[in-house]
Amino acid sequence: MTATTVIAPASSPVDVWSSARKLLRNRTILFGLGVLVLLALVAIFASVLWTVDPAALKPRLRLRPPSAVNWLGTDNLGRDIWSRLIYGSRVSLIVGAVVAIIAVIAGSALGLIAGMVRWIDNVLMRMMDGMMAIPAILLAIALIGGLGANLVTICIAIAIPEIPRVARMVRSVVLTVREEAYVEAAVSMGTRLPVLVIRHIVPNILAPLIVQATYIASSAILIEASLSFLGIGMPDEIPSWGNMMADARLYFQVRPGLMLFPGICIALTVLGINRLGDGLRDMLDPRLARSVGGVK
């Protein structure tokens, strides 16, 4: 799912502007970016957009149809569906962003060490292989069971299974770049290892890392929703799209919208982020470009 692209150690301003124009002409990237920006705006201005306190319990108003006050109706406890959907966007955005940041930083550090220090490579990679052998959601369930369910532990539990994938990807790029002529020339000139990594290695891993981060973010949103649906994710007093679907499953025949609304939000968010990742992959990897500017 990732693209390994070896680039030159430096780029001119002309290349930067050319890349920006390609990005703006790529409809796949624009669609994904539009969804992500919309989600961010909804999360930032959630307190303005919601109409009723999303945690307010009103049993007398349970399972009401849409009205002027409750735009999408109420759930089985009388809570406003619209307000809970808006608040749930915050949870999804935070989980996706934090998990991607943790996985990229930790995985990049491990991948750089494995790629640059030969004697520790086998040890680290065997550890990463062992972690990858465990399904991500099962490892997350085990970690949450031991640490407790809250936003911090959920982000950590989801991020840990993603670290080996990032580490292996970064390691593969580092091993490829190390054989490039300009890197060998820098080594022969006595360039120190930290300078070599910052100047020649890091620029080559940025493009695949950005693409990988989008896939990690979308996967994290899905896993968080799955955990919340199973009842081991976000606490019920904190609205998230996953626990909204869990609360609605018993009332699907009476009020199918209770489950469909958060499901649609999850699907659109994941689709948008994945389309952004696909577009960036096609644009950053010249082997996948099919037309001028990477536009499909």
Name a few traits of the molecule.
single chain, about 300 residues, mainly alpha, MetI-like fold, disordered N terminus
Please give a structural write-up.
There is one protein chain. By secondary structure, the protein is an all-alpha fold. It has one domain: MetI-like (MetI-like fold). It is about 70% helix and about 0% strand. It is built from twelve helices and no strands. The chain has helices spanning about 15-25, 25-45, 45-50, 80-115, 120-130, 135-145, 150-160, 165-175, 180-190, 195-230, 240-250, 255-285. Helix 2 packs across helix 12 and helix 4 (about 80-115) runs antiparallel to helix 10 (about 195-230). The two termini are about 20 Å apart. Residues about 1-15 and about 290-295 have low confidence and may be disordered.
The CATH class name reads Mainly Alpha
- Overall structural domain count: 1
What is the annotated CATH architecture?
Answer: Orthogonal Bundle
> What's the number of helices?
12
The share of residues in extended strands comes to under 5%
Low-pLDDT sequence parts: 1-14, 290-296
The amount of helix comes to 55-70%
The CATH topology name reads MetI-like fold
How many E-type strands? 0
Distance between the termini: 18 Å
Largest sheet: none
Provide mean pLDDT, rounded: 84
| CA-based gyration radius | 22 Å
